[in-house]
Design brief:
5-stranded parallel beta sheet, alpha/beta, globular, 14 strands, 6-stranded mixed beta sheet, single chain
């Protein structure tokens, strides 16, 4: 038996199935953990208001690690526990580089998504799935031109997200962009995107800060994930669990590989480590 007091879990491809739904098995396991007074913390690349309502409304969710760790949000008190943003000037520099590529991009600022109108209008040609397109349509406010908007706002940026139609180019840029922007974290969370955050905005750093805030030792934490933006969290947690549908690099960073997201892998691992 492990003395786990905090469990952080990615949403898409981890807690949620490919249909974006929460299985009865996963819900039952989380409910049991909550009854044992374990903190249950969604850890997502989404901003808080962009999370599915059925996750936000779970009665046992008191804290959320959002935007890849750019914000840790206290749900009960509606306040930020900690945050890390990139300077708006750096965000504009990234976007100027992205303007050289056949991509569209957006950013998160103030817990919401913003996108150049031209990109918003042609998002259907860049979104990998209907779900991804729906998120762009519903969770982004189009502005005439994003760099000009950020310059006028003159406030920090939580995340930049880029959508690639060409997977070979995306693979090349996943190698090149971290070298071009070594002061930023360059990662990915869905099949055709690349994401930029400040150096301190990782799920791993956020998990460590939240655990410290709650007086919980790192060894008493557990984390679940499936993509590159989850690796730091799996490495930070006392027990890091990768999904069977995760990439090889994610599995290598984990202590254990559970079932895939369509077979309630979260519940499977909780049973194994907490209740067997």
């Amino acid at each position: 038996m492990h003395n786990i007091r905090l469990i952080a879990f990615d949403l898409d491809g981890t807690l949620l199935g490919s249909d974006k739904q929460l299985s009865e098995e996963n819900l039952a396991a989380l409910t049991r953990a909550a009854e044992e007074e374990i903190e249950l913390v969604p850890a997502t690349g989404r901003f808080y208001r962009g999370m599915p309502p059925y996750i936000r409304e779970l009665p046992f969710v008191h804290y959320v690690i959002s935007i890849n760790g750019a914000q840790v949000y206290d749900v009960s008190n509606q306040q930020t526990v900690c945050s890390s943003e990139m300077p708006w000037q750096r965000a504009v520099a990234v976007m100027e580089r992205l303007d050289e590529l056949p991509v569209i991009y957006d950013c998160y600022q103030d817990g919401w998504g913003w996108m150049t109108q031209e990109f918003y209008d042609k998002a259907d040609k860049y979104a990998a799935t209907v779900h991804s397109l729906d998120m762009i349509r519903n969770l982004r406010t189009p502005v005439p031109e994003l760099k000009a908007y950020l310059t006028k706002q003159a406030r920090g940026v939580q995340k930049i997200q880029v959508f690639f139609p060409d997977m070979a180019l995306r693979a090349k840029m996943l190698q090149a962009l971290p070298k071009e922007f070594p002061d930023l974290v360059v990662t990915t969370s869905i099949v055709n995107n690349i994401e930029f955050n400040s150096r301190e905005a990782t799920k791993g750093v956020a998990l460590a800060k939240l655990a410290a805030h709650l007086g919980i030792a790192p060894a008493q934490t557990m984390a679940f994930g499936d993509d590159l933006n989850d690796i730091t969290m799996l490495q930070t947690a006392g027990i890091g669990v990768a999904m069977a549908n995760a990439g090889e690099a994610v599995k290598q960073a984990a202590d254990y590989v559970t079932l895939d997201c369509n077979h309630s892998g979260v519940a499977n691992a909780l049973k194994r480590f907490l209740w067997e």
